[in-house]
User: What shape does this take?
Amino acid sequence: MPFQDFLKAVEPLSKRYPRNTVIVAITGGEPLLRPDLAECGKALKDKGLRWGIVTNGMLYDEAMHSKLIAAGLSSVTVSLDGLEETHNWLRNHPESFRRALRALHLIANTPGLAYDVVTCVHQRNLVELPQLKELLIENGIRNWRLFTISPIGRAAHNDELQLSRAQVEQMMQFMADTRRENRIHLTFSCEAYTGKYEEHVRDSYFFCRAGINIGSVLIDGGISACPNIDRSFVQGNIYQDNLLDVWDNRFQLMRDRVWMRTGICRKCKDFRQCLGGAMHLRPNANSNILRCYNFRKE
Assistant: This one.
């Protein structure tokens, strides 16, 4: 997308909201493939919008780091999906692990830069989590976030990327134990409500923020909520609609989720806490949830 198209769409945000209270997270794909990324970031900063990136770290070297910091980069998320062999298998590149770690060294040693490491947990790297934890601590990493890989997109057809319910609970127990140790700040993602594990794996209880305080502009101009939700939830397009008008008037599906009380959610006693789970686990507004993570107390 031409950056000026995006900037024109989001500029009204800088006029409505106080300076630096809105953050633009540039994700992908891989944002560092844009040769004008630093220029894009500086333009956002000049409008009073904070900005950050989600990156695999492949192109994040010292020169890139300096360039982005000078452009006002305020936050970075780097993917590290296991120990070296496993990470490189998932990312399909023999240099991926080394370069991600290089990026983390630069990022973690920059005062004032918010960051975290995200790990997508699957069957190959589940057993590596204790070693990965030690590696991160040894490298001075303070913030770590775990995801599971939802059965959507290409991942829906790869069983090796999916955890069984017992494996998900194994991951939850690892997280609870790690948080008790307090050697690294570990949290579970916005994946889903976890029942009895909520107070042990997160800093606050689950709440899917899609369409509440997270909106997105997709590569084709589509206006949606979290970019991970199904494209059937797109609410407009910046090439035909005003972004703020869409935000103010069209996100009813996200803001009143009574429609999510279907299937296994219909009679669930925890619905008031869960509200039907994460939006990205619904293929459309008429479907049941793809996966439930609610572990109830025995």
User: Anything to note?
Assistant: Residues 8 and 182 are 44 Å apart (CA to CA). The beta strands are 23-26, 50-55, 75-79, 114-121, 143-148, 185-188, 216-217, 222-224, 236-237. The longest helix spans residues 165-181.
